[in-house]
Amino acid sequence: MEVGKDINDFLQKCGIRRDADVCQLSLTLKKLTSVPDLSRFHFLRKLWLNNNKIRELSCRSLNCCLTELYLHNNNIKSIAGALNHLTCLRLLFLHNNQIRGLEDTMHELRRMQQLQSATFFLNPISHEPGYRLHVIHCLPSIQLLDRKEVKPEERKRSFQIYSQDGHRVLQSVAFGRRITT
Q1: Distance, C-alpha 65 to centroid of its chain
Q2: Rounded Cα gap, residues 119 and 115, in angstroms
Q3: How many CB atoms sit inside 10 A of residue 20's CB?
């Protein structure tokens, strides 16, 4: 399948003549095994690549201003080195893949300060101990995780578990105690 030709045919059918006019693109159900080069779409904000057969993820050709990325229902094993430049993402769907390595995955997403909604369920990482609280700690802007609202109690608990030094300082300030380490 020639993805470039499919994209051009689709744009022509929609009456889109300039790449600069493309702000959304759906490549769902195209049997893709990798992410095509989409660097020509400088104003692309929303991209659907779900329900394909993508195994290896390389998104370097994607615009860093992308705000929504749908990669669910593929065969992705790792996102390492693929998404960290997408710092404007607000929504990332990665559920129902084969993603392993919670630490590596969170390291890849650490620069996404605007990420509000993410899905990782139906991946091996979602079964790792402490998964939800660890994700909440690593992605402080997250509001919806795996289609469930992040509760204030969960934020507090993740802070207590993963920021033990910070928690001790907070407790000492709150109760007028001095910390000795």
Answers
A1: 13
A2: 11
A3: 12
